[in-house]
Structures are given as structure tokens and as C-alpha cells.
Amino acid sequence: MQELKFKIDSQREVVIMDIEKLIDNPNNVKIHTQEQIELIKKSIDKLGFNSIVVIDEENMILAGHGRVLALKETGEKTVPCLKISNLSEEEKLQIMMMDNTSVLMTGIDEEMAKLVIEKLELAEADLELTGLSLEKISELKIEDLDIPEVLAIDKQQNEISRETSLKLTFGTRKVIITDEELERLEAKYKEYINEMGVDFGFVSYLLGADA
To answer: What is the secondary structure of 88-137 as a DSSP string?
Structure first.
């Protein structure tokens, strides 16, 4: 197969490579589990191949080992690569290490992540393709609210009993609930989250639970 090339500068070019010509990097420090490879395959299938593989002039992989493994399992014959020439051995190691370890040096903005998850849920999108585990997604959502936003809790002073009461808020309406009812509602919500991984559909589940 003739390689398709697009030259960027004297050192770099984008090449459509025969996947079987790529050489595994013996210094690769990243462990790729089958679970991760399956997720990459699913992402490629649903969203396309959006991260280029980096190789040296000898076709050795510097970045993108997991993506190559996933593509091979799907039966792909070619892969877009950024080929970089005239690198020292130290520079090749640095590129490989940076690709595999830089992500470990940072976290995520959990408040922003919650908003993104909510948007994806409303669109009924596949949350697995965020790269977050269902456990992490559940953790983000439970940290945000112990019950769904539509059932926001409001504590205020009850003027008649002069005791603090809990209320469910539906728009402008508020319904008093007891501590026991709140505990049961929270238990139902956490049970649903643990089983489904998302809170989309929780209200329907709740309304149908006693039907």
C-alpha cells in the first residue's frame, strides 16, 4: 500500500500507515487493560478516531499504543500517524513518558464534570464514552445532591410547630416531608444510582415502584 503523506515541516509529517508496519515501543510504561481497549474500540466506533498516533522514522510507536491495539482488534488495516524524524533517544523517551504520565499529574474540575454529565444525560448519551467509570459518575452525582435536583430539599422554620422541617420543592410548591421519608427517598435514589449508574429515569422508577 502506498503511504499517503502530508508534510508539516522538515521534521514532521502526517502519514497514513499500514498498521502492521508499526513497531511496539519496548520502553512503553503504560499498562493497557482489555477493559480500556474495549472502551477505546467503542469510542472509535461511536465517535471516530480522533487522536493521532505518534511514531519515529523507524515506525516505532512513541504515543498511542492503546489506540493501535484497539484498531488492530477491530480489523483496521491503516492508521493516521504523526511521524517525527531526527529525534534523539532521550527525546523519544520523553515523548513516550509525557503521553503516558502527564494525565496522572492532574485531576478534573468536578463541578464542571457534573454539569457535563447532566447535559449528556438530558441528551440520553452514552456516559461510558466520557472515559469515567460508572462508579466515578455516581460519586460525582451523589456528592452534588443526595436526591435529584427536581426534588431539592429546603430546610426552614415551621411557624406552627417551631421545629425545623424538610420540604420538597416543585417549582414554587413545597411539600413537607419527615426525616424518615427523606431517608427512604435517599435510599431509593442511591439504590437506583448504584444499579443504573445514572439518575436519568429515577422519577419514573420512583412513581412506578408502588404501582
So the answer is: -HHHHHHHHHHHHHGGGG----HHHHHHHHHHHHHTT--GGGGS--HHHH
The cell for 29 is 510504561
Residue pLDDT, tens place only, 34-90: 988 998 998 888 888 888 899 999 999 999 999 999 999 999 999 999 999 999 999
Q: How far apart are CA 64 and CA 53, in angstroms?
A: 5
Contacts 24+ apart (CB under 8 A), 142-150: 142/190, 142/193, 143/110, 144/114, 146/186, 146/189, 146/190, 147/182, 147/185, 147/186, 147/189, 148/189, 148/199, 148/202, 148/203, 150/203
